[in-house]
């Protein structure tokens, strides 16, 4: 049954719509469409409302809803079909209002105003930039590019090691030296000392055990110091990032290489991000920007 929208205006703003939609999501409300076959077809051909000036398609209603979702993460995952009748009415009214407002503005030739043309040009430039970034990201995520980069990284990792170290993070050199001398006398107390004395409380709870980590991820000075001792031995305190670190080399093994299928998603994200960052840095450098104001 069609619903005839009451022409008496409701005092509902976009903000109130967002709140209603948030409530809808939190209660996990989901209603079936009265015409699921239509919703499964081309959304630009599915009519969800008519009015004296035209009609509203599912595609237009969804686009309006997506504007709200883009402004509020809590609405993520909502679809027009999942809204109740009151929420759908609000979205449809926004679409109709946009159409009516646009037509009225054109009747008044407001599209010829200088500020409108300037804003439209800025919008077009920003939209094209975003489309370019999406294109760069998609190119970077192509299967052949992912495989090529994975193979190169895997080759580099063949010569790398995973180190398992335990460490105690100390504020001063004198305290670090005192703890180190105590550990030389009683190496088995390392875990206890880490729990009591380490500034890194999270790792300290684990007795200072960081687990296996690829050597390239660790600070270079920590890796170098760990290499000065054999497995199970404790290295002299060193300064790292303003704090003193006592390192114990627990074990080492050849670096584990994650299979391509499991690494694929993370690799795609990193390559997409890098493609955009490289484009920005390279082109800004080529632009030779000269700032004329201070």
Q: Can you describe what's shown?
A:
With 294 residues, this protein is an alpha+beta fold. Among the domains are: 99 residues, Helicase, Ruva Protein, domain 3 (Orthogonal Bundle), CATH 1.10.8.1040; 95 residues, Chitinase A, domain 3 (Roll). It has eleven helices and six strands. The protein has a four-stranded antiparallel sheet with strand order 4-3-6-5. The longest helix is centred in the middle third of the chain and has 27 residues. The termini are far apart. The N terminus is likely disordered.
Overall radius of gyration: 30 Å
Strand elements, count: 6
The secondary structure category is alpha+beta
Q: What percent of residues are in strands?
A: 5-15%
Specify the oligomeric state.
Answer: single chain
Q: Shape from CA axes?
A: elongated
Mind telling me the CATH class of one domain? Mainly Alpha
What is the makeup of the main sheet? 4 strands, antiparallel
Helix % is 40-55%
Q: What is the spatial order of strands in the main beta sheet?
A: 4-3-6-5
Number of helices: 11
H and E order: HHEEHHHHEHHHEHEEH
CATH names the topology of one domain as Helicase, Ruva Protein, domain 3
What value does the average pLDDT take?
A: 85
CATH architecture of one domain: Orthogonal Bundle
- Unreliable spans are 1-36
Cα distance, first to last residue? 65 Å
